[in-house]
């Protein structure tokens, strides 16, 4: 049976140095349950160390957590990549690790990068700098995501920085995208008209939350699915088999 799910597919945890310390996996899941968000994706910058904790934190709730990551390509373009299983996420992590800069993080300048468990206990501080471009380009990144059966979404294409369209001016034909995301700046229903480079790609919105207030108040989408899975979301983005996205 098809039913509606409220989803936020772009949420940062304390692993992202730009996120507030309140953005622990357990706290994110707790607020998702409290505010009726059925599906969330944990999408930290160039890393996924807190995804397992979020999955465990959600295991006794009605919240579905999707493994994800927000990647910064060598062109300084942000892409949200989502997977169904941690097995795929781990393969993706190996690809990203091979293309990270290797530079160490400057906590005073950029903020700390905390890895925590499902109980929000500190496990370690990630030392490698995450807020920096990979050595892989947008076409290579999107192709690898597709090879691992992930969803690839161009982040906040309406923003003046870290946006595929702003950086390049167009979407290259060799970039494999399942959707584009807009932020609060542009209503999703008006995005294709205001940003013609989007073409016929599906448009979604998400909170891109770095604080709990961002998460609570930020934009969401409603997905009509049979169950909360990546395969179902893929069909909804394609408007297949009565699955659909309402923004």
TrEMBL record:
Domain of life assignment: Bacteria
Annotated GO MF terms: 5'-3' DNA exonuclease activity; 5'-3' RNA exonuclease activity
Signal peptide: none
Start and end residues of each Polymerase/histidinol phosphatase N-terminal domain: 7-75
Pfam families xrefs: PHP
Protein name in UniProt: Polymerase/histidinol phosphatase N-terminal domain-containing protein
Native source species: Lucifera butyrica
């Amino acid at each position: 049976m098809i039913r509606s799910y409220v989803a936020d597919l772009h949420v940062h945890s304390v692993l992202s140095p730009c996120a507030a310390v309140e953005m622990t996996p357990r706290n994110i899941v707790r607020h998702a349950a409290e505010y009726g968000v059925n599906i969330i994706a944990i999408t930290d910058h160039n890393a996924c160390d807190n995804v397992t904790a979020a999955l465990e934190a959600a295991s006794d709730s009605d919240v579905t957590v999707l493994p994800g990551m927000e990647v910064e390509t060598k062109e300084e373009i942000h892409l949200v990549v989502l997977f169904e299983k941690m097995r795929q996420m781990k393969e993706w992590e190996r690809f990203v690790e091979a293309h990270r800069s290797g530079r160490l993080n400057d906590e005073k300048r950029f903020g700390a990068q905390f890895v925590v468990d499902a109980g929000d206990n500190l496990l370690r501080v990630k030392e490698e700098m995450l807020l920096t471009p990979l050595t892989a380009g947008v076409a290579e990144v999107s192709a690898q995501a597709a090879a691992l059966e992930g969803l690839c979404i161009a982040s906040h294409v309406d923003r003046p920085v870290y946006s595929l369209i702003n950086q390049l001016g167009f979407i290259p034909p060799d970039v494999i995208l399942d959707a584009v995301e807009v932020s609060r700046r542009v209503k999703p229903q008006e995005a294709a008209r205001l940003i013609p480079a989007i073409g016929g790609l599906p448009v979604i919105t998400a909170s891109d939350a770095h604080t709990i207030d961002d998460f609570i108040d930020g934009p969401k989408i409603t997905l009509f699915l049979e169950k909360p899975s990546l395969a179902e979301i893929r069909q909804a983005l394609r408007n297949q088999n009565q699955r659909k996205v309402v923004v």
